[in-house]
């Protein structure tokens, strides 16, 4: 039976039509496969970058991310909540991470005169030097790994940003 001019297949009984779009030839991956790939890529890149930062700078990836966010904040100071949000840590996680950075002399905690309730983390000169030294290691390794995205980098970044925004929660 020839196909109609619109290119669609001839009428099939409803019970013969596929119910799972992923089962169609050329269909995209199932959500479970996409999720697995996201988790694998995150875990593998995180491990590689964390190892390089520890080895070359004596700094964890989480510590680096916190330092970088503080360094990029106005006046090189950020509230604990801002650091937690930017790095994806819980309040307890950011307290622990910033505590290690304070102990290493990379950050100081301070309260502002305008609002004594808010605790800020401010970069020290040693913290500024540490993050500046670690940025090329971090960014270079991430760039070498993500270059494999090729021309799809913008598409993947945009898609992941949409998922991230949709799943953002406040604890």
From TrEMBL:
<dbReference type="InterPro" id="IPR036390">
    <property type="entry name" value="WH_DNA-bd_sf"/>
</dbReference>
<dbReference type="Pfam" id="PF12802">
    <property type="entry name" value="MarR_2"/>
</dbReference>
<feature type="domain" description="HTH marR-type">
    <location>
        <begin position="31"/>
        <end position="165"/>
    </location>
</feature>
<dbReference type="InterPro" id="IPR036388">
    <property type="entry name" value="WH-like_DNA-bd_sf"/>
</dbReference>
<dbReference type="GO" id="GO:0003677">
    <property type="term" value="F:DNA binding"/>
</dbReference>
<keyword id="KW-0238">DNA-binding</keyword>
<dbReference type="GO" id="GO:0006950">
    <property type="term" value="P:response to stress"/>
</dbReference>
<protein>
    <submittedName>
        <fullName>DNA-binding transcriptional regulator, MarR family</fullName>
    </submittedName>
</protein>
<dbReference type="InterPro" id="IPR000835">
    <property type="entry name" value="HTH_MarR-typ"/>
</dbReference>
<dbReference type="InterPro" id="IPR039422">
    <property type="entry name" value="MarR/SlyA-like"/>
</dbReference>
<dbReference type="GO" id="GO:0003700">
    <property type="term" value="F:DNA-binding transcription factor activity"/>
</dbReference>
């Amino acid at each position: 039976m020839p196909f109609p001019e619109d290119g669609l297949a001839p009428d099939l009984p409803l019970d013969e039509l596929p119910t799972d779009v992923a089962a169609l030839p050329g269909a995209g991956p199932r959500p479970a496969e996409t999720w697995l790939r996201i988790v694998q890529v995150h875990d593998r890149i995180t491990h590689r970058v964390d190892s390089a930062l520890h080895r070359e700078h004596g700094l964890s990836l989480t510590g680096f991310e916190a330092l970088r966010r503080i360094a990029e904040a106005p006046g090189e100071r950020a509230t604990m909540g801002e650091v937690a949000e930017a790095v994806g840590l819980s309040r307890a996680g950011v307290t622990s991470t910033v505590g290690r950075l304070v102990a290493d002399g990379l950050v100081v905690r301070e309260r502002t005169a305008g609002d004594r309730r808010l605790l800020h983390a401010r970069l020290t000169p040693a913290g500024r030097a540490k993050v500046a030294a670690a940025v090329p290691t971090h960014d270079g390794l991430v760039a070498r790994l993500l270059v494999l995205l090729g021309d799809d980098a913008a598409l993947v970044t945009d898609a992941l940003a949409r998922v991230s925004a949709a799943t953002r929660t406040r604890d």
